[in-house]
Every structure is written in C-alpha cells, then in structure tokens.
Design brief:
The chain is of the alpha+beta class. It is built from eight helices and eight strands, in the order E-E-H-E-E-E-H-H-H-E-H-H-E-E-H-H. The chain has a domain of 184 residues. Strands 1, 2, 3, 4, 5 and 6 form a six-stranded antiparallel beta sheet that branches. A two-stranded antiparallel ribbon has the order 7-8. The protein is globular and about 80 Å long. One of its GO terms (molecular function) is small GTPase binding. InterPro entries: cDENN_dom (IPR001194), DEN5A/B (IPR047278), DENN_C (IPR043153), Tripartite_DENN (IPR037516), uDENN_dom (IPR005113).
Length: 277
C-alpha cells in the first residue's frame, strides 16, 4: 500500500530536441494549417523518481494527459501565459491517481528546431501559392479580384508566420505532479512557485531539487515552498471526501441555470455527458 506521501512523481514533458518535430497523430492531420498552428508530439523528458512500487509510472498516459494537444509553438507576438489543468488516471481495478500540470512557454535554443520550423514555412507557403494561383488565361478574374498573384490571400495566410532572422520561437513545456490525493490548490501553488523560480532573475534560497525532494518524500502536509509555505489538510473520517476544486469555476463556466439543471439531473440519476476541448 502507498505510504502517506503528498506526491509520487515529478514529471517534465515537452520538446525532445533529439527526435525533432514529429506530427501529433492523435490530433489528426492538420497540414493545411500554418506550421505555428499545427500540433507536434510531446515526450516525457524526465521524471523523478524513476518508479514507485505502489504506483507504476504509465508514460503514455501521463505524456498524453499532461499535454493533450501536443506541443504548441508561438513567437514573441503571441500571448504566452501559463495554463494549469488537472486530470485523473483510472486503473483497471478502479483505483485512481491524480495529475496536476502547469504548461508554459520557453524560448527554443536549438538551431536545428528553429531551422526546421523555417523550412516547414517555406514548404507551406510554396504549396499554398501553387494551390491558390489563379488560372493564367483568366485575366478578368484577376482584375475583379484586384490581385493576380493572390498576395492579398497569401498575406492573410502568412499572418502569424515565422522568420528565423526576425522572430523568437517559443515552445510549450509542462511540469506535473502525480499524486495519490487530489490536493489541487496545493499542487497549483507548488508548480507556480517552481515556474516562478525558474523564470526569476534571482535564484531561490535552495536548489530547486531540494524543494522537489521535500514534496515527494516529506511526511508532513505542510511544505516549505520556494516563496512561501504550502499547507494541505486531509478530511477526517466523519467529513465528506476531499474535493479541493473551486465550485466558483463551475458557475463561471456553465452559468447558474445550467448548474441547477445539472444538479437536478444528478439527483434524478440521469446520464450526464460533459463535452469539452
């Protein structure tokens, strides 16, 4: 049985520079999209510890659920705010393990990846110009469209493009905690503080590995975070099961009427399907 630990694994997912840019087959073919709008395959880059006896590491499941949309690329012109989400892995015996992920963007330092993205844009633009070139003998359509070379459409298509000599390329990366209990607020604080420490110009008081080790092997439910304490509390036997998610977000996402209708359906034991991106 699992000991009373706060987290079982610390995981990092992102771009594997050795394998390069691989299309994400789970997202379907999206070659008609500009390269910056395509999704690429992410990999589990590191995890600690390597394995725990009571919770075997499922690399495929964790990799897919940490970054369900695969890798995303952006430039300095795009918004790059970190995003947090949670997930659950349910095993065949019905037992559950919880995952909490913080996805952010970091600058691509690999020249090979930047060159590959530039090449994809050259190929995409060449194919687009061939497919959308007007007929050579149709001068009337050119004059009515106002542009025989199709540059007006090409400019629209090339918006959000990437020029290796001008733009800075960023790629998504994810840090994740795999836990036996759903301490959502605490996990979010831990991941946000770790990310803040990585991006801050001032180094943290202790090496980041010290904080990660404390999270994984600490017996207390009060931790010394990078920038402040993090406290968790297990419910007692007489209390309701742990539910650490803010109910306010449900009302913000669905609205009051839909929440009431959803609650009514739950009380009447109707089948309920929630569909989301």
């Amino acid at each position: 049985s699992a000991p009373g630990r706060f987290a079982d694994y610390f995981v990092i997912c992102g771009l594997d520079t050795e394998t390069g840019l691989e299309p994400d087959e789970l997202s379907g073919e999206n070659f008609e999209q500009t390269p910056l709008r395509r999704t690429f395959k992410s990999k589990v880059l590191a995890r600690y510890p390597e394995n725990v006896e009571w919770n075997p590491f499922d690399q495929d499941a964790v990799g897919m659920l940490c970054m369900p949309k695969g890798l995303a690329f952006k430039t300095q012109a795009d918004s790059r705010e970190p995003q947090f989400h949670s997930f659950i892995i349910t095993r065949e015996d019905g037992s559950r393990t919880f995952g909490f992920s913080l996805t952010f963007f970091e600058e691509v330092t690999s020249k090979q990846i930047c060159s590959a993205m530039q090449t994809l844009y050259h190929m995409h633009n060449a194919e687009y110009d061939i497919l959308h070139a007007p007929p050579t003998n149709d001068k009337e359509s050119c004059s009515s469209a106002g542009d025989c070379n199709g540059t007006s459409v090409s400019k629209l298509q090339r918006f959000n493009s990437y020029d290796i000599s001008r733009d800075t390329l960023y790629v998504s990366k994810c840090i994740c905690l795999i836990t036996p209990m759903s301490f959502m607020k605490a996990c979010k604080k831990v991941l946000e503080q770790l990310h803040q420490a990585v991006t801050s110009p001032q180094p943290p008081p202790l090496p980041l590995e010290s904080y990660i080790y404390n999270i994984l092997y600490g017996r207390s439910l009060k931790f010394s975070g990078v920038y402040g304490p993090i406290i968790c509390q297990r419910p007692s036997t007489s209390e309701l099961p742990l539910f650490d998610f803010p109910v306010k977000e449900v009302f913000e996402l669905l609205g009051v009427e839909n929440v009431v209708q959803l609650f009514t359906c739950a009380l009447l034991e109707f089948q309920i399907l929630l569909y989301s991106q």
